[in-house]
Amino acid sequence: MNATYDPALNAKVKKTSEKISENIHILANEPSLAFYRIQENVRKVVPVIIEKRSDVEKLRNDLQGICFDLEYSVETLKSIEAADEPLKNIQESLKNAIFLRQQLKYEETRRKKDTSANRDSSNIYKRFSAHLPLEIPDIGGVMRETTNRVENYMGINNGAGTNSQSELQRSHTTLH
């Protein structure tokens, strides 16, 4: 083959090789390639970020629960402080009740001693009262008679009302 030098062909080859070189350089630095590199970086970092985010969310929930517990504790302490006066009143009432119970025990033991000492004197009273008659007079007839007089005076038996009404009024007046 004869190598002839053709300057036009040589210029075309040079121009074509420059264009190919420029295209290779553009392809190497193309934005889609940059996006690919970003995607690779995101794939490496996102799982770690998600794990950290779930840890932060769990800590936030725990912290919120602790805050609720703390608020409830503060409210409970305030209510305990407010209950100070009623608790003091209860304590005073208990002291008074214990004191009164002690007094009752003392009186009870004193009466037992007095009863045993006065047993002979009470027997005298029992013997004396045994001779007294204990008859209660029958006042039922007097009450009926008084009831009849009051009813007649008030006009209950004048036929003003029905028989059952007058009986009801009579029984009411008899009972009272």
Structure keywords:
mainly alpha, single chain, 176 residues, rod-shaped, 0% strand
Helix-strand layout with pairing:
Layout: H1 7-28, H2 31-82, H3 84-117, H4 119-130, H5 140-154, H6 163-175
In short, what is this structure?
Helix content is 84%, strand content 0%. The chain is mainly alpha-helical.
Fraction of helical residues? over 70%
SS-derived structural category? mainly alpha
Counting DSSP E segments of at least 2 residues, the number of strands comes to: 0
Order of helices and strands: HHHHHH
Helix count?
6
Poorly predicted segments = 158-164, 168-176
Structure, explained:
This protein is an all-alpha fold. The protein contains six helices and no strands. It has helices at 7-28, 31-82, 84-117, 119-130, 140-154, 163-175. It is rod-shaped and about 170 Å long. 0% of the residues are buried.
